[in-house]
Write a structure and sequence with these properties.
There is one protein chain. With 70 residues, this protein is of the alpha+beta class. The chain is 43% helix and 29% strand. It is built from 2 helices and 4 strands. The protein has a 4-stranded antiparallel beta sheet, with helices on one face. The longest helix has 19 residues.
């Protein structure tokens, strides 16, 4: 009986630890990076535009466009 309880508890701990370490999507990574750089954010319909002194990023449902400023 102890082995069954111990096995169930171990599986529960492993399951929750793997779920809590989820990976960020590419969109989330780009958004976080731009926020960290102090980007100006504009949200319009289904588009997100973020702009810093060095680059512009447009995020839509389908793609991420990055443009370096010169």
């Amino acid at each position: 009986m102890k082995k069954i309880i111990f096995t169930v508890l171990t599986l529960a701990v492993l399951t929750t630890s793997f779920m809590s370490c989820r990976e960020q999507t590419e969109k989330e990574e780009v958004m976080q990076e731009m926020k960290d750089e102090g980007a100006e954010v504009k949200i319009k319909d289904d588009k997100i535009k973020m702009e810093t002194e060095d680059k512009k990023v447009k995020i839509t449902d389908d793609e991420i466009k990055t443009k370096e400023k010169s």
